[in-house]
Amino acid sequence: MSTSSSPRLLSLVRSSVLALAPLALSAMAAEVTLAAEVTPSPATTLAPESAFEDSPKAVIDEAWQIINQEYVDASFNQLDWQVIRQDLLGRDYASPDAAYSALRAAMRQLNDPYTRFLAPAEYAELTDQTSGETSGIGVRLERNNQTGAMVVVGVAPGSPAEQAGLVVGDRILLVDGQSVERMPPEGVLQQLRGDEGSQITLTVSRNSGAPRTLILTRTLIDLPTVEYAQKTVGGRPIGYIRLIEFNAQAAPQMSAAIKALVDAGVEGFILDLRGNPGGLLMSSIDISRMWLQHGAIVSTLDRDGNDDAISANRTALTQMPLTVLVDGRSASSSEILTGALQDNNRATVVGAPTYGKALVQSLHGLSDGSGITVTVAHYYTPDGTDISRRGIIPDVAVDLDDRQRRELFSNPALLGTDADVQYLRAAEVLEETILANQGVPTSGASRLVRVPQTE
For the whole model, what pTM was predicted? Predict the structure, then answer.
């Protein structure tokens, strides 16, 4: 595999390439390329594109052309892609929704859950999330699996939610008078979004107290994706950083977190990627370079057999000992970062095997506001490992049973605390690494110690 960043690959990752798992595709995408131009296929024998103007067929043909030009499998899962086009454009559609349904059915024949059509609302939500900013009130929500309540699990500093007094643990009962009891968290968040300057009315409760009504004004908000805190292990200060997703704000937020904790005098870091479904490919590369001084980060292989790699560029912000926490919901960009750190012996990986998604997608907006994600490449870790379906295997295995997992992730405030057994084991491993680097004998297995890189 090549060890330098080729112009072709750099062009790809700078055009909003995503890496996400199906569990996140409803809220984001996977490595994605936005708003690419579409040119007519020279093989077509049907009516020219002008014949489809102001017709649902125009969007179908846009999507077909993109897949025809970019899809990673040149055989299209043994389909005759030209016949698929003729069939789609030979039909009459009573509405855009009817055309969308036909396009979805055609794309399902590729047998690729990551190559998918996004209706306008889905595409808008995805681009909001990958951009890392949206017009809303500044909260993150989760459904409590035990009580069924819609609970605030994050409040953006300076946001309308914070200014109105909302705190983590508050329950959202009504949005503009509509009950959220049967809504998924994504549906509630969609209700909370709206035009900048518009108002929204919430009914909330705290600690099972009486409901109260709040009127908030939406504003443009950077979505918080990095949470960090100084912790202590064995009397030593360490930095705990949780990365929620790889959106466009993740790299600057990660940089700020690392610098703040270094300035605070920490002696090592725990990077928590549990539950992180992925996001922008370039974000995973930028963040890898903050931890990794030199070495390969990721390699990709496209349908034409082009094999390219991106490497660290000697811009690491710290070389202090590092432990990475992962689980079965750590996917795509999370796996790119974890693989780069593990294969270069930069970090010890603790937790459960990751999701196992080794594909790269591009995201394209279509002319009517809808969009598609298209798988454009396979990726490999620096050691050339294909993690498809097997994931990354931790150096130190610490799994949770269903009860532990439910209790921990239904209350994110428990993450990174004494109630979090995976975090506690990661802290032990980090302490062993710190002591080993200082020449202090430890009882831990020396093979797990990752020595900070030097020039």
Answer: 0.79
